Amino acid sequence: xxxxxxxxxxxxxxxxxxxxxxxxxxxxxxxxxxxxxxxxxxxxxxxxxxxxxxxxxxxxxxxxxxxxxxxxxxxxxxxxxxxxxxxxxxxxxxxxxxxxxxxxxxxxxxxxxxxxxxxxxxxxxxxxxxxxxxxxxxxxxxxxxxxxxxxxxxxxxxxx
Length: 160
Hints:
about 160 residues, alpha+beta, Aminopeptidase, eight-stranded mixed β-sheet, 4 helices, 8 strands, globular
């Protein structure tokens, strides 16, 4: 499904031609970046949701998520540094959540570095709640992850 936000940024499914731009954003954003092959392999999987944000013809952000049992697991989300603060991350997250709801997922789960204060603030703002911590989850550098969850449908009591 293609969406347009007020900033004239379209959200659409990722295609093979987007992978180079996605990898560039990944390298710009993360110290433990995923390899190119990870993105290309997921494009062929029907259990994976891969979307990009496009401003004119430039890929400005992406999100990769997978379905796991009753959950939508958000694996990666990033926005080009020059385009942050414009609502693109929120639009990408909404698109992935919609995909998860369409597949009857009860909640969305994601991990974030404890030091990534701006991401933690963003996730709280869009309705995610911290539900746990994974010790020494990240390798480069070694750091804990906070686990966040958002109920997509159903009763929150099922998760407590």
